[in-house]
Amino acid sequence: MLKICSVKKKRKELYQITDRHLRRLIQEEQEKCIVNLETSLKQPSTSDQLVSITSETSNSSLQNKNTSKTLICNDGPSFSTYSDTINIFDEPLCVTDNLLPEIINNFDSIINSNHPCSTKSSEIISNVETEMHKSNLCDKIRSWAIQFKVSHNCCNSMLKILNSEGLSVPKDIRTLMSAPKIEEITTISNGTYIHLGIENMLLPLLNSLSVIIPNNILKIGINIDGLPLAKSSKSQFYPILISILNIKQRPNLVIPIGIFHGNTKPGNVEEFFNPFVTDLLMCINNGIQVNDNLYRLEVIHVACDAPAKAFLLNVKQFNAYSGCTSCIEEGTYVKNRVVFLGTDSPLRTDESFRCKLDEEYHKGDSPLELLPINIIDTVCLDYMHNCCQGVMKRLLELWVKGKKDVRLSDQSIKEINSSIQNLRSYTPSEFCRLPRPLNDLEFYKATEFRLFLLYSGPIALKGKLKKKNYLHFMLFSFAIRLLICKETCIVYNEQALKFLKLFVNNFSILYGEHLVTYNVHSLIHLPRYVLIHGPLDNFSCFRYENYLQELKKSIKCAKYPLQEAFNRIKEKQQVISNTPYQDLEFKEFTNKPMSSVNVGMYLLNPNNTSDDIKVDICEVKRKCFVIKVSESSSVAILLCHEDE
Questions:
Q1: Angle (deg, nearest 10), helices 467-484 and 493-511
Q2: HEC states along 546-573?
Q3: How far apart are the first and last CA of the chain?
Q4: Could you give phi then psi for residue 87, rounded to 5 degrees?
Q5: Contact between residue 179 and residue 148 where contact means Cβ atoms under 8 Å apart
Q6: What are the residues whose beta carbons fall under 8 Å from the beta carbon of 138, sequence distance 6 or more?
Q7: What tens digit of pLDDT does each residue of 90-114 get?
Q8: How many CA atoms lie within 13 A of 39 on its CB side?
Q9: Rounded average pLDDT over 408-431
Q10: Rounded CA gap, 463 and 485, in Å?
């Protein structure tokens, strides 16, 4: 059912509009002045020379010609005296009706003459245009520097060139960026820590987004992970990241809340994580006030790799006898490693975790116990580390570098590389990396392992890998395909669980019991987390890993990395807060496919809706259709749908 609603678009700030649009606004203000002048001259007067004019038709037509646009300027030049400077008459006039047409017809010549008031108006408008041009240029330079992570020395050199060409820009990039004041840096075990604050980081974002969040509940995900800063030293970051999961316009949005810097990971989990937990509890209990909306926070998942998860839960590491975070399966020591051969052990529960029933599993209290969450269900498995960089990488290493009974021959590897090379020209742009030959296996990234597991592997391995090993691999590929697709992850969840259990049980037969480690064993728990959180991509670490690389590239100097990271984050935050949501250009809407959630962000008045109109879905062939409302105008209706 479709409803035709009155639409109210978001107004742009004055300094963001084009010169052409400014001239149009000035012309409209001139027309308003003409109407006001005409109205004042038509009013009855005590003077005998003033003639009362009552042409309501012409008056209404002139008023309808004007548009009700309001100029709003917060950061740009002041425009509060604009309407006063347009009025060129300082004193009341008594004009006969034969002079009125002459005044109206000659208004443009009067306003452009050497009249003192008109000269003042022209000077103000000229100053406004100059300030707007300067503001637009500074905004573009600021966005360019942040987008491409340009060093300050490079920016200062460019600003010097622009100043030499007569452009009015700051001499130093720190002035342009409005370098923020460094927050308090605290010293904790093994390094230093800076806390940015949840509310401080979310407020500019929520102010700049023109979206409606259901029930005003922000569903967030949490991630912590180590980030080496250089290959020549042990210097590393250990940031606390969050993502807002229910803003579909920004699905990969990641926000840093705290950053630890040291040569090792933090020594004490409570000292490191308690400031974040305290801040999060305050936001959960009190909410975040944005204009007239009060937003509540809800923790949906905590996604980390195995070492970070064990550190955050304050439990034994993944290679311990009680290392599984999902079940109470006890490991077995085989060939210098701990393996998990069982697949039917009882699952851990939130109650058993908080009561510490498994004494061999816990090392102490976890900061997560302070949060109102189900710890076992919320701290989930991440398929990026578990499946892509874990099991898939292990299989490829066994096929390329393993023992003779499972290793591929040199001829088979050449044929596989040839098949992968042929697939490169058919790989769509949605994949961020093209497939590479197996000779570059040690340089593979997680996205390349995912591409091989789901798409290129089943094609390239067919006929080259032993049949039993190929069928075993296809169990793994089919199961992940079912769990990663939102249409099949729930319906065929039990089937995916059967595939994964069969894969884990046969893994020890084909490759040996000593290789059924934590990653292989954890595959049987993936369907359970899919039932809780949805498709695998809903709670994966891909978005967080992408942000870690962005954070790393923003560091240009190793002397004060924590302070530099803070400055870059705050500079980007200021650009986000000063940049409203950009309107979609028509050519972007028609020239390439795009998601419907990126189109049609309007404020709707539900009181002005029409009756329901039924449209057969078979008749809808485009993302918009046009309704003719008169001979000269039509209304374009955007067909936006929301994913179920």
A1: 150
A2: HHHHHHHHCCCCCCCHHHHHHHHHHHHH
A3: 16
A4: -75, 105
A5: no
A6: 169, 170, 176
A7: 333 344 444 444 444 454 444 444 4
A8: 11
A9: 93
A10: 27
